[in-house]
Amino acid sequence: xxxxxxxxxxxxxxxxxxxxxxxxxxxxxxxxxxxxxxxxxxxxxxxxxxxxxxxxxxxxxxxxxxxxxxxxxxxxxxxxxxxxxxxxxxxxxxxxxxxxxxxxxxxxxxxxxxxxxxxxxxxxxxxxxxxxxx
Length: 134
What we know:
The protein is an alpha+beta fold. The chain has one domain. The protein has 5 helices and 4 strands. The chain has a 4-stranded mixed β-sheet. A hairpin with a 2-residue loop joins strand 3 (36-39) and strand 4 (42-46). The radius of gyration is 14 Å and the shape is globular. The protein starts with a strand and ends with a helix.
């Protein structure tokens, strides 16, 4: 199974100073349609369980670490989901990650994620990203 590093560890590989203990991968595990899988201490976002993850996976499938643009899309999606769930610790972590990507990798424009968020959710995350100073 091809695993693409995403999450905090991917950002650390790109130069981020945020510490994280978990390891997150994007996979296409056709044996299950579960969106999130945890195995052997690793967390997997399953492209077979989500159209959003599938689109990102198809772009990144030949890479070991997701590109800054795909990480921006994933972090924007996660920021909205954690906001909706009231997981404010994760929201804060994702804000740090979004700032890092904008300031250090010159990515700011969202594309794919817009199809998977409501208009108001997309406007909120876009507003946050646009307020990040470079």
